[in-house]
């Protein structure tokens, strides 16, 4: 399967996906990585893995709609089977999202529906939660609100700070996201009537 990955920064989840493709753990390849920020590490990771590395600087566009139109134009040139958001820090227009419903997934560093948006780890610590974690979900127009696919829990220690916790959650993300993407590539994961379905593996 053909994957296009959107990033805005470091791209450590992208790297986990690229490595899984390389190791045959994902039956797919990343044909292009698109960043809305120039010069980020995620673009370097793309080049090193032999994927096209594309920058579409959102600051050069007058509106969200114009940026999203260019973004989808570039994505569609690759005709991806799936669109993977991996630390992509831009809110997308409904028009863009609706174009890829059922084909676009995101990873969010909390146990959704808790803590949409930013500062998720600090908010979990402040609330006295005993578990943080990460969620992979289909993307729908509601921010961080699309149908859940899979979550991973990470215990919060008594003396945890947001930085230490975020590192452990990120490591967990690197296990979670490639697994979900492999399910997508195998055709086992589908979205129907607003719910994610995982088919059993044939015996
Ligand atoms: C991750 O914590 C992810 O959950 C969130 O943004 C971060 C991206 O990190 N959406 P990286 O760029 O993959 O290292």
From TrEMBL:
Q: Where is the active site?
A: 108 (proton donor)
Task: Identify which top EC class this enzyme belongs to.
Answer: transferase
Entry's Gene3D superfamilies? Formyl transferase, N-terminal domain
Q: Which residues of this protein are annotated with the site description Raises pKa of active site His? A: 144
EC number from the UniProt entry: 2.1.2.2
The UniProt catalytic activity note for this protein reads: N(1)-(5-phospho-beta-D-ribosyl)glycinamide + (6R)-10-formyltetrahydrofolate = N(2)-formyl-N(1)-(5-phospho-beta-D-ribosyl)glycinamide + (6S)-5,6,7,8-tetrahydrofolate + H(+)
User: Is Transferase given among the entry's keywords?
Assistant: yes
Query: What GO CC annotations are associated with the protein?
Result: cytosol
Detail which positions bind N(1)-(5-phospho-beta-D-ribosyl)glycinamide. 11-13
Q: Return one Gene Ontology term, BP aspect.
A: 'de novo' IMP biosynthetic process
The molecular function GO annotations come to: phosphoribosylglycinamide formyltransferase activity
Domain Formyl transferase N-terminal span(s) in chain numbering = 1-181
> Entry's InterPro entries?
Formyl_transf_N, Formyl_transf_N_sf, GART
HAMAP family, per database record: PurN (MF_01930)
Task: Write down the PANTHER family for this protein, in alphabetical order.
Answer: PHOSPHORIBOSYLGLYCINAMIDE FORMYLTRANSFERASE
> Of which family is this protein a member?
Belongs to the GART family.
Q: What does this protein do?
A: Catalyzes the transfer of a formyl group from 10-formyltetrahydrofolate to 5-phospho-ribosyl-glycinamide (GAR), producing 5-phospho-ribosyl-N-formylglycinamide (FGAR) and tetrahydrofolate.
What name has this protein been given in UniProt? Phosphoribosylglycinamide formyltransferase
